[in-house]
Amino acid sequence: MGAISLEFLQEELQRLRDQGLLTTIRTVSSAQGAHFVADGRRVLNLGSNNYLGLANHPALVEAARKAIERLGIGPGAVRSIAGTMSIHLELESKLTAFKETEATVSLQSGFAANLAVIPLLVGEGDFIFSDELNHASIIDGCRLSRAKVVRYRHADPADLEAAMERELSTNHEARRLVITDGVFSMDGDLAPLPAIVAVARRHDAMVMVDDAHGEGVLGDHGRGIVHHFGLSGQVEVEVGTLSKAFGVMGGFVSGPRVLTDFLRQRGRPFIFSSAMTPADTAAACAAVDILTGDDSLVKRLWSNTDRFKAELARMGFDTGRSQTPITPVMIGDAQQAQTFSRLLFERGVFAQAISFPTVARGQARIRAMISAVHSPSDLDFALQQLHDVGMEVGVI
Length: 396
Fold this sequence. Notes:
The chain is of the alpha/beta class. The chain folds into 2 domains: 131 residues, Aspartate Aminotransferase, domain 1 (Alpha-Beta Complex), CATH 3.90.1150.10; 236 residues, Type I PLP-dependent aspartate aminotransferase-like (Major domain) (Aspartate Aminotransferase, domain 2, 3-Layer(aba) Sandwich). The chain is built from 15 helices and 13 strands. It has a 7-stranded mixed beta sheet with strand order 3-9-8-7-6-4-5, with helices on both faces. The protein has a 3-stranded mixed beta sheet with strand order 1-2-11. β7, α9 and β8 form a beta-alpha-beta unit. α7 packs parallel to α8.
């Protein structure tokens, strides 16, 4: 028998191209920083989650090098067999102190952390109440749990309360879990966490926050959204990533010790997939040390963010509901957003167009990511190019 034809995939790719939804994936051939080389061209980097510039920080590079010399390249096994190394425990101890929780488990990524923890907390017959704009990893973790997923309107505690009253009125024994992103990655707005926690408490629900874009950005020394709102000890599950502000790769779950103890026993990504590499883990330790000891990078990040957003507003750009360094430049039409991104790149600025299915149809945008390592001249250059392209394509 012959091979099955995959011609239908070519048709799907052409459909995406015709609709302006085909993502341009550029190749980066230098270290991450305020500038990098993409597709052979040196450009200003407005597309990275490297909020604090730690992805190429000398202290992290040196920590990774020493870890390779001492511990080798890979962990050699899953965490539950022979893959838990001393450096993993060191990182978990540092993260626990940084997050001011009881315990922490590190995993391969923030995505893996969500897949690990959600099915441990709820299952068939239970309820998950999930913000309608939560990250794809939360959506997938919810599906794996087999619990009933009830979506509430974005950042709307009143709608969350109505949904809980409706669904739980005759389901008194079911476990219930409220999940929200801390910072929403495409719009840059914050979850109204104090109100969400209050609603959850009235309905005996656990609260889980995925703070991938809040770690290193919000709160004292970048401890995250729970610390930002003064809710330490009131959120059962904090999921974080090490691949954004921390500049490395990996994820973690932080909270009560009983949660992390059980995750080590039954969290599928923990027991069925190899651990973080020694180099990544050591570099993450160095990142936590930097943030614990000095908040100057966090302050610089916010100073750059405030200036950048103020200038965009003065020019007439719509930056949506952003409250963080994630700065969407709202375009609307997907093809126009692709054109905007391409013209920026030709002028020396890397900033990706984001369109459906990452955001809703008609909500395409350029997603500009501000970093602590952008200099005043970098911001001036970016703002000038955004202005010129905005005028050219008729956005302003």
